[in-house]
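user: can you give me the structure for this one chain? tokens are fine.
assistant: on it. calling the predictor now.
[tool input]
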Amino acid sequence: MQAIIRLLFLALLFTIPGAQNAAAQESRTVTAEGVAMIQQGAVDIARDAALEDAQKRAVEQAIGILIESQTQVENYQLISDKILAQTKGYIKRYNVMNETTQGELLRVVITAEVALGKLEDDLSGIGILLVQMAKPRTMILIAEQNIGGPVNAWWWTSSGQVDISAAENSFIDVFTKKGFEFVDHEAAAQDIKVSRAYQTQDLSAGQARTLGNQAKAEVVIVGKAVSKIAGRVGGVMLSAQADISVRAVRTDTGQGIASATSHAAAVHINDQTAGIEALRKAGTQAAEELLTKILAVFAKEVGGTRSILITINGLTKDQFVKFKDVLRSQVRAIKDLHEKSFSGTSAVIQVDSKSSTQALSDELLLRNFGSFSVQVTRSTANTMELQVAPQSKP
């Protein structure tokens, strides 16, 4: 009965704004162990995997302490699961306390401070998270139109001179303060080759993906921003209003990460100055909203599972069945597997992995697939391409 009361109290806690804010500031220092198998003497790969495992366990443990997720009250498990799904933790800092090997297993013990507050306000936490996400480079493609001016979109600027807009500047300011890296605009403008089809304010996810890949960016922020005069204030000052709509797209998969919209107003004696200020305000608001959503997606992937799209070339149907069986039964990081297509000697699958693409590719290289071997020919943060070849006889 006491456990039920505590659980109901916690459920109530997360429905009260004031209590949410108090809980959001909490942090826990926990000790967690991560384990990985040493395959073919690859200790470094095992160490990275064990450390990643320890960090995930630290986050899970800290959240569990707060919400008492280990309750044995079956009838209230749904409430517990709901609270757990709504509560996200992230690592502020950690230290490796011990590393041991037991046969083919490598164990790493860490102490970690896990915060349950707002990730976007914690620079150290963001720094660790971005490293875990391989520090994705970001590019901005926002078409902007100020009062009385043309639509400015730098990716189709024929003069080669980049026109950085007020809204774009706002995004750069907000994101760089949190540690994000941006593609150099002048270098990108020289590298990007576009047709007339790309000279539009409304870039599709596919178009954004193409432009981002040309500039070697992992994330592209696309959108449009427009300002207009709304009227006069006091007979002298001009009131301008700005609207902005943006979305973030992954360039390796074309997947949309997050989106944001914003509206802002500004007053000035000059109409263009008022428009620029309104665009700047709207850009800052949209940037902060988009940043919060992107970090939430990154934290969820680091702390839980991430989707990785794998293309396999050079296998027969029988080998494909064997490959899937090995992934399901021998690769601990893979929690689920979905076959997308099989044609000729090529297949596409999507796996839900608790490891990064790099860690997963390292592990696949060490797996025994019997009559065939697997080589990683290309990988990104969320995709992997494999080539299958007959196993060489001794």
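assistant: here you go. The chain has three domains: 2-117, 137-302, 306-390. The two ends are 66 Å apart (CA to CA).
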